[in-house]
Task: structure prediction
Amino acid sequence: MPGWELEEAAYGAGYAAVCGVDEAGAGPLAGPVYAAAVILPRGLTLPYLNDSKQVAEKRREALYEQIQKQALAWAVASVGAEEIDEIDILNARIRAMQMAIDGLGTPADYALIDGNRDHGSRCAIVTAHETVVKGDGRSVSVAAASILAKVSRDRFMTAAAAQYPRYGFDRHKGYGTQAHYAALEAHGPCPLHRRSFLKKWEAGRGEQG
Result:
């Protein structure tokens, strides 16, 4: 379960405002990639907080509200499908994370970044930071960020289902399920689809045609 060890080490190194940062939606065929940054009160305990993938949807929704109420600062940012296609998903993830850090009402002087990448070919984390592999299972701040990013993205995709009802975005949230590919076969891509993620599918479709 996530703890405070990484934050405490940063405080011990002289940093005062330590944020956790995580993203959601790097893998789907459609929709934006979201990122969140969160600064929590030192030592705060949030029951059931964990990596968002390990938390049931109803509990994620409850934690989302708790985190927003109790955090010293939080911010959510996203990069859409068109920009993902333009700069690639790694750069889009990094850009969204830095945008979230920059959006904090209380500036962070140190960031705990989930994963092992802090830059791409065009974007980089410029705030003082460290990368933390499986950080959403180790750091309470990163876990809180993972909840905000995941819930924000899921809500976006659920709303998108009303605009593009043929694709079932409320069910699969843009991931490459069998039903999603069937909808693509029947209707082709919509503006929310990441065309760079559909190249293999489109190539196979061309061969069949």
